[in-house]
Design brief:
This protein has 14 helices and 15 strands. It is an alpha/beta fold. Strand 4 and strand 5 form a beta hairpin. The longest helix is centred in the middle third of the chain and has 18 residues. This is ABC transporter, ATP-binding protein.
Length: 361
Amino acid sequence: MVEKVISLEHIDVSFDQAGATVQAVKDVSLEVEKGDIYGVVGYSGAGKSTLVRVINLLQMPTAGKVVVNGEVFFEKAKDGQAKQIGATELRTKRRNIGMIFQHFNLLEEKTVIRNVEFALKHSKKKPAEVTAQAERLLKLVGLEDRKDFYPAQLSGGQQQRVAIARALANDPEILISDEATSALDPNSTVQILDLLKKLNSELNLTIVLITHQMEAVKQIADKIAVMSEGEVIERGDLVDVFTHPKQQLTKELIGTDGELNKAIHLLDRDAIQNVNHEEWELAHLTYTGRVVVEPIAAKLYKDFSVEVSIIFGNVDELRETPVGTLFVTLKGSTADRQAAVKYLRDSGVDVEEFNSREVIG
Ligand SMILES: Nc1ncnc2c1ncn2[C@@H]1O[C@H](COP(=O)(O)OP(=O)(O)OP(=O)(O)O)[C@@H](O)[C@H]1O
């Protein structure tokens, strides 16, 4: 059975900024299931941080309902009275939600192990148990041999590992990562994302990943929500959203737009200038898994008399699923091209067609 871990219902958050009201989050509902890696993406200022800070009530919503693990943290109808969990209980419940940030926020005057132990200062564990827990976590994040170092003696990636160990000190079920890889070099970014993926599978940790880096969500997220101006404008399974983006902004974020422009730019105009507009089109093919291009091109020619010319192609990995993109021109009569496109779609290839007149005017 699917277990809902986080449920945000109709969340609004407004701020007063110099006398004006800024609506940072507008009527957003979001459900995160146990074991999800849920990416929340969007440009700076879209409202991502504000939205996720609502989960543990670091940010109070103006209206809406926040439920974590079946427990109502906050509830307020638009013009109603707010009901919220008591302060002491909230403090305890927050321990179930670890957080990591872009800036690691480590205590510079404390060693790595003391930084992790510090997160257990309110726990009822004995000092020896606290140390054992911190050592266990440092081992989990691959830093057992750096436990007596100070933060300044570590690389950014290593400091983020310490921050992750500290965030896991109270054995939380949920980890919120707010731009945790944004300040890291590409290599450390990949390693931190791999670590988050490992923690997700080994501990069944539910992760909410806020980022403006599409590469980060591509590497590990199962689901994504795209935010713009305080609203979630598109959401769903990562592979679905990446292969069938609906909103213009999503296309922009994942680069589909740029790819189309590149295809139009690279189009061999000499080769098509004498071809009648009705006899060719530009097509964007997307396929998951392994599709062999050569036989498809040969088949379209042999069975449908449609000539395929590849403009460019690319294979990407979305959460370990290979996803191929091909921009091609299809030459042939309208009826033959329609039959060929139908064959491609029936074979599981997603086809987006661009009329020749739209492409070159
Ligand atoms: N405490 C605050 N007081 C006033 N306005 C705020 C506050 N926090 C956020 N905002 C405003 O709310 C909007 C959303 O900000 P938020 O930080 O949630 O966006 P974001 O998508 O996380 O972007 P970034 O990655 O730049 O933080 C912005 O217009 C921001 O200026």
